[in-house]
Design goal:
The complex is a heterodimer of chains A (about 190) and B (about 280).
Chain A lengths: L1 H27 L1 E3 L6 E3 H13 L1 H20 L4 H16 L1 H4 L8 H31 L3 H33 L11
Antiparallel strand pairs in A: 1-2
Chain B lengths: L14 H4 L2 H17 L3 H17 L4 H25 L3 H6 L4 E3 L8 E2 H15 L1 H11 L2 H10 L4 H30 L10 H32 L18 H24 L10
Helix pairs in contact in B: 2-7, 2-8, 2-11, 3-6, 3-7, 4-6, 8-9, 9-10
The chains are: A mainly alpha (about 190), B mainly alpha (about 280).
Chain lengths: ~190, ~280
């Protein structure tokens, strides 16, 4: 019981500070790819780590809040369909928490490959299926334009998670004490 | 690098500053949802005029927000260009008529009044909420924001998370800058002068310390909050909460009437679009 309460406080704080980090990364850390208006989104790469440590609610809400705030100060008003989709992506990454079990300090190659396949599927469902469909239904934008935007985002976000996300997961796992690393001396 | 980011609360004494944050939040969400759905040009123009009048009332000076406005307009223009390039005949599909301005509908690139009208509508949709968002950001005290979220029904723990985000953005930004300077002093080039890969590596060298210090911060802050028994009660009172006054109730009525007008127009137009071509 005690532990549970502590976890809920941690979720609140992780959501808040996670959102602040996502906001700063979205706003200031953009690595241009050479194609105009496309940049590698570092914030997406931070998401798997946040999800793996603090779970689906923290990751989903953090990206939702961070993205909303960023849209507010960059474009004047949030683009709701994409904000919500991003929130769902965060939620999906958080669901991998138990499977990754990063606190155990062991992150096998197999888990990493599994996670990367999972994230590519999640990003596909989110950016190629959900976000453009939302844009067509709610904003009534031309299908070709939103699908092109969606597919570009899918590729860029998947790459960003594959590179930055994987590096962060591995480095974080290294800072954890490995389970069973202590032996009783005889 | 981020001197332009300084759109934030600015304490002045106007009608809008005195309104409760909850009222402004409800107004912003209500307008942005109805404006997102409707394609009625008259309604969008009306709501844009309304928000510009409010902007005038809020006494926000244009110089304070000019940089942000320029970016917003550039973004909108780029998006509209994309809409045109990918579907030049989309306006005609929607409105069902063909009033050509340039070339015939058989050509891929053509221009019709319908397309222009559709793009104009999109432009209104991209921009009408901007003055409202700026008003909301610049007349609402961030400390009151969580109280407002809680008041409109968001659980207090979620509201508190938003509050923490607003509170820690400046800290994370400062950390980012400090780490960036330290890494540059060690020889990582991250400016535009650097090539693609060195720049990525340079950025990664900032990212790691930034994220790991922030994870530590999450531990410290949550322990501090636990010591102060955060999350023990079912509800929470807020120091900065503003009580609803007469102005709030009358504003809510006005907001409700405007949204009602927007919904009524769906019936009048028989759908989301107002079609001036069908006569």
């Amino acid at each position: 019981m005690k532990n549970k309460e502590n976890n809920s406080i941690k979720t609140v704080v992780a959501t808040g500070i996670g959102a602040a980090i996502i906001f700063v990364l979205m706003k200031f850390v953009a690595i241009p790819t050479g194609i105009p208006n496309t940049q590698i989104n570092v914030a997406e790469g931070f998401l798997p780590l946040l999800g793996a440590i603090y779970g689906p609610i923290a990751a989903g809400l953090a990206i939702f809040i961070g993205h909303t705030l960023n849209d507010f100060v960059t474009y004047g008003s949030p683009w709701w369909t994409w904000v919500i989709t991003d929130g769902l992506v965060g939620l999906a990454f958080g669901l991998a928490k138990r499977k990754l079990d990063i606190q155990s300090g062991v992150l096998s190659r197999r888990k990493l490959i599994w996670f990367n396949i999972y994230q590519i599927i999640v990003n596909f469902v989110a950016w190629v299926l959900l976000a453009p469909t939302g844009d067509i239904i709610i904003y009534h934008e031309p299908a070709k334009k939103v699908f092109l935007q969606g597919i570009t985002t899918w590729i860029i976000n998947s790459l960003s998670v594959a590179v930055i996300g994987t590096i962060l997961l591995v480095l974080y796992a290294k800072t954890r004490t490995k389970r069973g690393s202590l032996k009783k001396e005889r | 690098m981020n001197s332009h980011f300084l759109i934030g609360y600015n304490d002045k004494d106007t009608f809008l500053h005195r309104l409760s944050g909850s009222t402004k939040l409800i107004g912003f969400i209500a307008f942005s949802i109805i404006g997102m759905i409707t394609y009625d040009t008259r309604f969008l123009l009306g709501i844009l005029t309304f928000s510009l009048i409010l902007f005038k009332l809020s006494k926000i000076s244009i110089t304070e927000v000019s940089f942000v406005i320029k970016i917003i307009i550039a973004f909108a223009a780029l998006n509209l260009l994309m809409v045109y390039v990918f579907a030049p005949g989309y306006g005609m599909t929607i409105y069902g008529t063909q009033h050509m301005l340039w070339r015939s509908p058989e050509n891929y690139f053509n221009l019709s009044w319908e397309e222009l009208f559709y793009i104009f509508n999109l432009f209104l949709k991209y921009t009408f909420a901007v003055p409202l968002a700026l008003i909301f950001l610049m007349t609402t005290n961030p400390s009151e924001f969580a109280a407002s979220l809680n008041k409109i029904g968001i659980p207090y723990k979620t509201s508190y998370a938003v509050e923490i985000a607003l509170r820690y953005i400046p800290n994370v930004q400062r950390d980012y800058r400090t780490i960036s300077l330290a890494q540059q002093a060690r020889g990582y080039e991250i400016s535009k002068k650097a090539k693609f890969w060195p720049r990525i590596i340079g950025n990664a060298q900032i990212l790691l310390p930034l994220i790991f210090t922030s994870l530590d911060r999450i531990e410290v802050v949550s322990q501090a909050m636990e010591l102060r028994r955060f999350g023990q009660g079912k509800r929470r009172t807020w120091y900065m909460e503003k009580q609803f006054g007469k102005a709030d109730y009358s504003s809510l009525i006005v907001i409700f009437l405007i949204v009602l007008a927007g919904v009524a127009l769906f019936n009048v137009n028989g759908g989301r679009f107002w079609n001036p071509f069908k006569h």
